[in-house]
Design goal:
Layout lengths: L8 H15 L4 H15 L6 H8 L3 H13 L3 E3 L5 E3 L1 H8 L3 H18 L2 E8 L2 E8 L15 E3 L4 H7 L13 H13 L2 E4 L7 E7 L7 E7 L6 H18 L3
Antiparallel strand pairs: 1-2, 3-4, 3-8, 4-5, 6-7, 7-8
Amino acid sequence: MSAKGPSNVTDVTSRVEAAGAKAAPASQTLSRGIRILEVLADARGPLSIDEIARRLEVHRSVAYRLLRTLEDHGLVERDAAGLVELGARMAALAAGVAHDLQAEALPELTAVAGDLGVTCFLAVLDHDECVTLSSVEPRHAVNPVAQRPGTRHPVTRGAPGKAILSLVPKASWPSGISGDLAAEVTDATTRGFATSHDEVIPSLRAVAVPLAVRGRGPAAIAVVFVASAHSDEEIAARLRRSAAAIRDALGG
């Protein structure tokens, strides 16, 4: 065997298996099941089976079979009216993602929510999307804004997305970013925080600061609200203190 060839049979087997894995077609059933979880995470409330089928562009019977399997695993649940939402098992799975980051962030999210009376959350970059990892609502607010873990939207929209992009080299930004958005991200880099209004959910405002932790991907901590007695600058200052505390707790 030449010096350029595999050194042993194990190497050959590994390469063949890797090639086979790349060539194997994706599982449509698994893909659809994952898509259901994404749809439910993005929804602001429970959805009917018909609505889920419409969003997946599949027949109702197909959506029903997928939901039954997800329900068996506790990933989704149905209420008395038959409406579907994410199940408790999803929260347990989500808690295992970036566990140390979430663990250190939770006390800070709780403190910000209590100090400002608004919902505070931790978001991370997942490919070209901004995903909420954990969220805390203020305890005494009358109608707090819900920001459910697992909620995702394009990183090119919303304050946390802009804050995250301020940590990402321009060469790695998603394609098609407008000049206006590029200017907003540049401004967020200079100011140290980003803002948004009506970008993700109509009528809601958000303020976010970037969170860069060594060994972790780009993240942000943010608040979302309808109205606040605090200025954007005051909110950003409070968020920066929490971001610094999280970085220090995780060693930089």
